[in-house]
Amino acid sequence: MKVNLLNCEDYLISDVLPFKNDIFEDLMLEPILEVMSKNDKFVYTACKNILLAPTSDRKNILHRQAALQEAIENKKHIFSLYSIISEVFTDLTLLRSRTKKNGNPLPAVRVLNSIETLDLLSTGLERLKSAVVDANNQFKPGIFRDFFEAFLKEYDTNFMTLVHEKCQALRTLQVGGEIQISGRIGRGMKCDSLTVNSISEVRAKRKFEKWDSLFGIRLHKDEIRISYEDVQLTRDCKDLESTGLLHVASCFEEFNNDLSRLFETLRTQIAFFYGSCNLHTHMSGMAFGLCFPEIDEHPRSIEGKGFYDLTLAIKNLRRPMDNNLKGADTLLYIITGINHGGKSTFVRSIAIAQIMAQVGLFVPALAMRTSLYRGIFTHFVRNEDVTMTAGRLEEELSRLSRIVDMMKPNSLIFLNESFATTSENEGATIANDIISALNANEVTVFFVTHIYAYARKAYQEKFPRTKFLSAERNERSERTFRIVEGEPSFTGYGMEMYREIIPQ
Amino acid sequence: MISLFVPENGLSFLEVSELPKPAFFHDLNLDAYVEKFREDEYYSSIEPYFRYFPEKLSEALYRQEIATDLCDPDIRASVNRFISGIGIAERYLSYSEKVMSSVQKWKWRLDTIVQYYDAIERFCFELNANPPKSKAFYQLHQELSALLFVPETVKLRAKAQELNAGFEKLKFHITINKERATLDFQYSEDDYCAEIRTEFLNSVESGEQTFTESPFGDMNISPLEEFILNQFMKQDRVLFRDLETFCGIKRDIIATDIVDLIRELRFYIINLDYFEKMKERSFPICFPKLVSEKELYLDDCYDIVLASKNYEQKKEVVFNDVMKASSEKAIIVTGPNQGGKTTLARAFGQSFYFGMMGLPVAAGTAKLPFVNRIFTQFASTGGYGVEGRLEHELYGVKNMLDGMTKHSLVIFNELFTSAPTMDALTISRELLARLIRMDAVCFVVTHTFELAFDSDDYVSLVATVVEDGSFRRTYRIVRKSADGVAYANSIVSKYKLDYSHINYRLSKK
């Protein structure tokens, strides 16, 4: 059965975030995942994979938001569902490692292993069922309820009885059942089209056959006895029986695999909700504000109040500076201003919020209304390359070129101090060339820069659909770490800082 | 039977096997290309065809038509089915020669006949339904159809099918338990696994009904099978007697023509598969336009052997363009060491080889003049003293001049380096003039850059170096030297990040 908790049925995976590792580093997402996973490796991996796979499918995001809201209202049940599934998996892994140790087992042993796995899975299923029944009573009608009901219908009592019966039938073979196999004469006079007809207990009437055969009487007209006294014939019969059994075992394995796959998908999906609930609990405690974003149907807009950098908030346990953004129909954000004035933090807070929004999560802001982008990219200056000054521009541009390879129109890119490794004029020309080409293809750009030549040109020539933001300074020229709209500032005040640190 | 290499009477497999290996194989890395197929089951029956170079333009075009047809997925699938169908027949035939039991021997022969003609018939049927465009396939279709309508064949097949139907009726079932096993002569369609599948998995379509692997091997009959067979022989003596009369004597079932045909088809397919694999890895491949005049272009060409190696090692592959008008006489490549010149020479030569063989070439688009001789002289490394090397090279040149035809391709790579520069220049000039008189396609990689200035009719290609302080080579070879470009801009254009490129790259999606 399909598990559609996380995604709608017709959801297609789209690659909004092709450079997952770069984003993960640039936005420093590790602390967020630590809060989500609470040291559970599986939750960590599941959440990481899902967090780094935002989508541009509006329907799916709304679906996930709804499911997540249901989960947050019923955190207790999500926790218990997750722990039951995890336990089943622990048992299953144990069983598998044990059977693996024995190497390539005999056919009969393999059948036995299949039965044992089936037993384990069906017990797990029973436990899960009872937890689902409990949860079903608590959840309001919605995505989870739909799933629970479908689940209970698929694995109803009749089905469970059937599973038990088949297990039993297979066990009889171990103690002396019989197998019937049909075939015909094929190519080169060899047996062909071999099919297992049945596996059953030995028919009772045959009990007396020993006596009959002594007197040379046959029970069935055409039946011919294959003598077990002939060693070769006996071996062949045993081979045939084993092959038949293996064939049957593989059918059960198929069913077992199906069931394990169900557990696996369920585990991943529930893990994400579990992780999200953890994050929700953690952040609610700090009360910096969380909201489910409103998904704008129009493209190219990001608006909201009280955006803060989630990573920083988690790390510092302190309310970071928050910012507002009004970006209706905007393609270019040029962010300038004082060094260490909160520009990178600002860009990071928007990028994280946007990714979380497109994942279907709540976002670190008081309110957010945003469009969906077909691709999200970050291009941050890499610290580790500082020493190789000769190749830095080259490194930057080659990275950008790889990004352009993966980019589609209607994407979003965060450029942090890009093109700063060449002269101001050259940098401005390159920046202008690249950014205007990106904008012409409906790619929204956040550009944190010190290239004043570029920012001034953009400001004076009144670039369309462009917002100018800069790091705020109060009356006393002190940094407030807030980003506000305004004319690009002329300097990063580096000289001031220099004077501050090194007095004349 | 028709040959897939020349329109008229082609060489048989044995004759092809005796062809010598072309001398240029080593220089052009084609040795390594052929070597890639060493692991293939049919390597030894395919390898000789690599030496079967065409003599006439019509032959090259004939091959290209065949290869083009084989690129059609439906035709390719039919041909593959045909190849494997005949392959199975060959296997049955070999079984019939190996098995000891005579009744089994007869049956394998019967199976061979049925399998062999069925494969041919099916192939004809599919060619009829989806007719290929090439003359060769048209003729092949005619010949195979004719084969099926020979009265003896018709009679033979009818008898074989009748007998076969008789054997298909022989069915049984076995019941096995700890105490005994019994045999009975009914076949039951009940499938226990299907039951499980419908009950548990709600699916019937997946999974095999019958055993995928018989416990008794492929060829010989096992004691249990023999036991079963004996029961049937007692029951139906007539059927087994008929089999003996029909298959008791050995007869030639699979024609040698067909065996050769299969080898030839395999040659085409193994190569096409390889080129298509490169295409999947997003390397360009194309069929070149083959012409009789000496005009050529090769866009985005690369050394296919090096490219697949680099791809596996995740290294960059550089594509180069080469172009020559029919009025231009020679292509002269100069530039720094390790700038990709030798690789380009190889790529160039490979393109001609593959193009003439009728195969695709490793390039985006291509137009190639027909050649029936390829001569390469690559600087020989070691083995000779300084003087000895020059002498050796000159002997090589002499042999080449003796063997040249009106359609020759000559590739020189760094020749006469052991001679003083002036001498090398004089020799090269003299030789080049002679080659041009003989109307050869000349591709010369040389250190003596003065050669390129000799005539306006020479195409000059230069290997470029990116000046980023590290003297790293781009391996890109361009028609004119690219100097005077500012560093930053050169990097921007190297990564295709100028306005028009970004626009182009994004608007494609």
Overview of this structure, please?
The complex is a heterodimer of chains A (504) and B (509). With 504 residues, chain A is of the alpha/beta class. In chain A, helix 2 (30-37) packs across helix 11 (310-316). Chain A has 16 helices and 13 strands. The termini of chain A are far apart. Chain B is an alpha/beta fold. Chain B has 3 domains: 13-165 and 251-263; 173-221, no CATH class; 284-482, 3-Layer(aba) Sandwich (Rossmann fold). Chain B is built from 20 helices and 12 strands. Chain B has a 6-stranded mixed sheet, with helices on both faces. In chain B, a hairpin with a 4-residue loop joins strand 1 (171-176) and strand 2. In chain B, helix 7 packs across helix 8, helix 7 packs across helix 9 (151-168) and helix 9 packs antiparallel against helix 12 (237-247). In chain B, 38% of the residues are buried. The chains are: A alpha/beta (504), B alpha/beta (509). At the A-B interface, helix 8, strand 1, strand 2, strand 3 and helix 10 of A face helix 6, helix 7, strand 1, strand 2 and helix 10 of B.
Helix-strand blueprint:
The complex is a heterodimer of chains A (504) and B (509).
Chain A: H1 20-26, H2 30-37, H3 41-51, H4 58-73, H5 75-101, H6 107-138, H7 143-154, H8 157-176, E1 177-185, E2 191-201, H9 209-214, E3 224-226, H10 231-286, E4 294-295, E5 302-307, H11 310-316, E6 323-327, E7 332-336, H12 343-359, E8 367-370, E9 375-380, H13 392-406, E10 411-416, H14 424-440, E11 444-448, H15 452-460, E12 466-473, E13 479-485, H16 494-501
Parallel strand pairs in A: 4-8, 7-11, 7-12, 9-10, 10-11
Antiparallel strand pairs in A: 1-2, 5-6, 5-8, 12-13
Helix pairs in contact in A: 2-3, 2-10, 2-11, 3-10, 5-6, 5-10, 6-7, 6-8, 6-10, 14-15
Chain B: H1 13-17, H2 24-27, H3 30-35, H4 43-46, H5 57-70, H6 73-98, H7 102-129, H8 135-149, H9 151-168, E1 171-176, E2 181-184, H10 192-201, H11 223-235, H12 237-247, H13 256-280, E3 289-291, E4 296-301, H14 304-312, E5 320-324, E6 330-334, H15 341-356, E7 365-369, E8 373-378, H16 386-403, E9 408-413, H17 421-437, E10 441-445, H18 450-453, E11 458-465, E12 473-478, H19 487-494, H20 499-507
Parallel strand pairs in B: 3-7, 6-10, 6-11, 8-9, 9-10
Antiparallel strand pairs in B: 1-2, 4-5, 4-7, 11-12
